[in-house]
Amino acid sequence: xxxxxxxxxxxxxxxxxxxxxxxxxxxxxxxxxxxxxxxxxxxxxxxxxxxxxxxxxxxxxxxxxxxxxxxxxxxxxxxxxxxxxxxxxxxxxxxxxxxxxxxxxxxxxxxxxxxxxxxxxxxxxxxxxxxxxxxxxxxxxxxxxxxxxxxxxxxxxxxxxxxxxxxxxxxxxxxxxxxxxxxxxxxxxxxxxxxxxxxxxxxxxxxxxxxxxxxxxxxxxxxxxxxxxxxxxxxxxxxxxxxxxxxxxxxxxxxxxxxxxxxxxxxxxxxxxxxxxxxxxx
Length: 282
What we know:
- The protein has helices at 7-10, 29-46, 73-77, 82-95, 113-125, 130-143, and strands at 20-21, 52-59, 63-70, 98-105, 148-155, 164-171, 180-191, 194-206.
- With 282 residues, the protein is α/β, with parallel strands linked by helices.
- The chain has two domains: 1-107, K homology (KH) domain (GMP Synthetase, Chain A, domain 3); 108-209, Ribosomal protein S3 C-terminal domain.
- The strands form two sheets. It has a four-stranded mixed beta sheet with strand order 1-2-3-4. A four-stranded antiparallel beta sheet has the order 6-5-8-7, with helices on one face.
- A hairpin with a 3-residue loop joins strand 2 (52-59) and strand 3 (63-70).
- Helix 5 runs antiparallel to helix 6 (130-143).
- The longest helix has 18 residues, at 29-46.
- It is elongated, with a radius of gyration of 49 Å.
């Protein structure tokens, strides 16, 4: 079976980031996820023809910041900003929090995967030939600067009894390369004979990884060379016959001569008597 991975989820943390940026504990997490879905559904329902590509949501303590990326900012803003203010009030009532709405314009909608998928779906709903739609979409995207485009449709194409899948590709779309900047989008065309799914992949080039920064206070660690594996042992010469070993005989001890008798001690000298004292005072 095919092991398909979402191109955006596969690159989260490398070249892609999350559409919702907030933190919640275990108790509040499902509530906020449902609130995000409600916000996105309400925006897309009110602005169907605004060519919305992506909706980012950020949360602080008591404020929700909604960023709308669209190819038609004038449709979202309205005359004098009336539509934006109305949308902000609706979202505020839905969430019960202060809502801030930001709008970013997409300058090249021909290279945005979500907008390409939406455009193909709208043309299929108007009963345009799917082969013509695929070829024109791919050529238009390549002329706008994309390095690779792939568009696929699946369903009852042309009202056929059996559903099938058709796709058109030009350039290269390296789905297995993490540093590749690939954008993925999908849409659903609701026709009279059933729904037709549309998927689009856009390859814009590689994103070079940021160089690693080393702190100045910490010394740079030198990379130790890889240890070389020990080689085979050197061949040894054939063993020569061992020489006969003679037993070690200790040398004979020399005879010891008897000691000579000690000489008799000489008699001690006798001191002469002292002479009497002579002569005195007359």
